[in-house]
Amino acid sequence: MKSSRLVLLLMFVGVAGCGPTSDFSDLQAHMDEVRARPKGAIEPLPKFQPYESFTYSAAALRSPFQPPIKIDMANRQKGSQDVKPDDARVKQFLEGFNIEVFEMVGTLANEEAVYALVSGAGGVHRVKVGDYLGRNHGRILAIDESKVDVVEIVPDGEGGWLERPRSLSLKERS
């Protein structure tokens, strides 16, 4: 019996709490403020600024963490007027490519000559002593089983020409 009275009392309190109250003054003030705002006044979107990418342009310069290299201009090798490329001769096919693209992959020999096999420029090419290789007038001087010796003729920057020796070493299997 006590429990039924308790339930009845709780129901009465719950129903009494749902009664009409006329104190909506704060809600009414907010609604009046919203209604008083001008209609159609939407803030414009912020201006879009396109992203400007950063290009690092100092990649080819000296690292700031390494000391500068001093070039002794007085002792620098000077070019010679006696050394110069032969512009009258017909260019060979392998002179149209940089010498850095070539690597020696083997040798061939017969009774007449020793040939080197160089890979690059789209294939493997057979060259002999006296052939030209690379864009800097590189002439093959010697071929042995482990390397090809080449001498290039390059400008010295002051109107003369220098002979620069280079070697293509045999590429081992990889």
TrEMBL record:
Signal peptide annotation: 1-18
InterPro entries noted in UniProt: PilP (IPR007446)
Keyword line: Lipoprotein, Signal
Superkingdom of the organism of origin: Bacteria
Keyword ATP-binding recorded: no
Protein name as annotated: Type 4a pilus biogenesis lipoprotein PilP
Organism of this sequence: Pseudomonas benzenivorans
Gene name tied to this protein: pilP
